[in-house]
Amino acid sequence: GAVVSQHPSWVICKSGTSVKIECRSLDFQATTMFWYRQFPKQSLMLMATSNEGSKATYEQGVEKDKFLINHASLTLSTLTVTSAHPEDSSFYICSASLRAGETDTQYFGPGTRLTVL
Amino acid sequence: EDKVVQSPLSLVVHEGDTVTLNCSYEVTNFRSLLWYKQEKKAPTFLFMLTSSGIEKKSGRLSSILDKKELFSILNITATQTGDSAVYLCAVEEFTNAGKSTFGDGTTLTVKP
């Protein structure tokens, strides 16, 4: 149980286009999902916290108009990279939080490799 | 600002060696510390530590937390080439549904 999927697993796009990445919790409902970005040989950097039915909370330095997050249901959050540029090329990972009692456990998706040409 | 620092940043050992990875933290609303192993894709969960002094063990891996000194160690005994990976330490907060701050990771390379 507790499986999180991401789609697509990799995407190549031209500079200036927008790319949408989906994150789904397959067998549980996640009121909270997190989006991370990871550059080569660096750690995971939290971009935003996404709560179902409300606006995402962005970390300092992350442009909310560039990285649009929608969490329309308890099993789906989407990240749209708008007007992508080569410097947006990165590995994007989502995680979904499963609550059991008072404990929240994060389950990670497999990640999406974005390359912007 | 919450901070998680891992050391060393990289480590090269030979099969059979024992390694110790370190993680220190400064977090305001500490709830738990987690260790992950990351190979090519997303991290995979290893341990969650919430209490001081209680060792968690899984095969050749073990970990312990010291909440007074604010650090944790991850031990791997009898290393194998399959242990080569980036090991990430993350600290979860009580608030924000478990929001985590990650360290920079330790890259472990185990040579045959």
Task: Please tell me about this protein's structure.
- The complex is a heterodimer of chains A (117) and B (112).
- Chain A is an all-beta fold and 117 residues long.
- Chain A has no helices and 11 strands.
- The mean pLDDT of chain A is 90.
- By secondary structure, chain B is mainly β.
- Chain B is built from no helices and 11 strands.
Task: Provide key terms for this protein.
heterodimer, A: 117 residues, mainly beta, 7-stranded mixed sheet, 4-stranded antiparallel sheet, B: 112 residues, 5-stranded antiparallel sheet, 11 strands, globular
- Averaging pLDDT over every residue of chain B, what do you get? 91
- How many strands, which pairing sense, and closed or not: the largest β-sheet of chain A? 7 strands, mixed
* Residue share in β-strands of chain A: over 45%
The total count of strands of chain B amounts to 11
Strands of chain A, count = 11
What structural category characterises the helix and strand content of chain A?
Answer: mainly beta
Strand content of chain B: over 45%
Largest interface: A-B, 23 and 19 residues
How far apart lie the N and C ends of chain A? 37 Å
Question: Pairing-aware structural class of the strands and helices of chain B?
Answer: mainly beta
The stretches of 5 or more residues of chain A where confidence is low (pLDDT under 50) are none
SS field, number of helical segments of chain A: 0
Shape of chain A: globular
Q: Report Rg of chain B.
A: 14 Å
- Distance N to C terminus of chain B: 41 Å
Helix content of chain B: under 10%
**Mean pLDDT of chain A, rounded to whole units?**
90
- Sheet of most strands of chain B: 6 strands, mixed
- Compressed to H and E, one letter per element, the order of chain B equals EEEEEEEEEEE
Order of helices and strands of chain A: EEEEEEEEEEE
Shape of chain B: globular
